[in-house]
């Protein structure tokens, strides 16, 4: 029943076909009684929602968990779901970043991440649909964390990001962007040897498990740290000539 509710919620305000719910619950081998069992789950969910909201089961069926042609729809209003609030805060934070308002971006993105209380859908048995959404949610969280760390580094919060980045790189041993941010933070804190060790750890993980070398951005940052060149909080290299070498997210290197 929990899987049914989760599937409806990740598709809130959209009709979820009965066939999709059956496939989520039983994959390609549904029992003969699958349709009856699904209808029982829906009935029980409506009773639970009625108890939680003070509505009657009939009201829940017409206003919240609604039957539609070929499927079911879970109707929500603005702010009902934390995932909707998360995406709204992220959009606000990205607008602040685009306008150069790092202070507002820091506050807004931090508020978005504070909505998380652990891994997405952690207490739900996930089939194909929910597993795909779980991965999507987790990737969204990582992207926002990267935005947040970039913002903190620009604001000079070098020490504040170290603990978070240590945990993130341990949990994501192949994520080059997070490792590059951690290398920058360590180097800007005067911990050059640890920054170099971190690159080697990343390289070993990539080569041994994926057969890949680190990308151009991580390698250029490694060379800069190895040569004790000056870099700023955004990872841009400053050469003795006064040129600024900027590394894009794609790994391209440009000299200004």
UniProtKB/TrEMBL annotation:
InterPro entries: AfsR-DnrI-RedD_regulator, BTAD, OmpR/PhoB-type_DNA-bd, Sig_transdc_resp-reg_C-effctor, TPR-like_helical_dom_sf, WH-like_DNA-bd_sf. This is AfsR/SARP family transcriptional regulator. Transmembrane segments: none annotated. Residues 1-76 bind DNA. PANTHER family: TRANSCRIPTIONAL REGULATOR REDD, TRANSCRIPTIONAL REGULATOR REDD-RELATED. Residues 1-76 form the OmpR/PhoB-type domain. It comes from Streptomyces koelreuteriae. Keywords: DNA-binding, Transcription, Transcription regulation, Two-component regulatory system. Belongs to the AfsR/DnrI/RedD regulatory family. It comes from the Bacteria.
């Amino acid at each position: 029943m929990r899987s049914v509710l989760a599937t409806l919620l990740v598709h809130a305000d959209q009709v979820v076909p009965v066939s999709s719910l059956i496939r989520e619950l039983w994959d390609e081998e549904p029992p003969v009684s699958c349709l009856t069992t699904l209808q029982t789950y829906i009935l029980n969910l409506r009773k639970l929602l009625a108890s939680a909201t003070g509505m009657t089961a009939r009201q829940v069926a017409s206003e919240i968990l609604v039957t539609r042609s070929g499927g079911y729809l879970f109707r929500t209003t603005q702010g009902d779901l934390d995932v909707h609030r998360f995406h709204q805060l992220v959009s606000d934070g990205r607008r602040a970043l685009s306008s150069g308002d790092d202070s507002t971006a820091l506050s807004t993105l931090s508020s978005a991440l504070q909505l998380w209380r652990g891994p997405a859908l952690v207490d739900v048995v996930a089939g194909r649909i929910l597993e795909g959404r779980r991965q999507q949610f987790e990737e969204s969280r990582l992207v926002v964390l990267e935005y947040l760390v970039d913002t903190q580094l620009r604001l000079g919060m070098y020490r504040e990001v170290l603990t978070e980045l240590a945990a993130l790189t341990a949990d994501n041993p192949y994520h080059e962007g997070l490792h590059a941010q951690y290398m920058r933070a360590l180097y800007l804190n005067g911990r050059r040897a640890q920054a170099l060790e971190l690159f080697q750890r990343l390289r070993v993980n990539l080569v041994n498990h994926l057969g890949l070398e680190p990308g151009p951005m991580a390698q250029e940052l490694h060379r800069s740290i190895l040569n004790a060149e000056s870099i700023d909080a955004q990872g841009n290299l400053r050469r003795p000539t006064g040129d600024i070498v900027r590394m894009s997210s794609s790994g391209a290197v440009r000299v200004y």
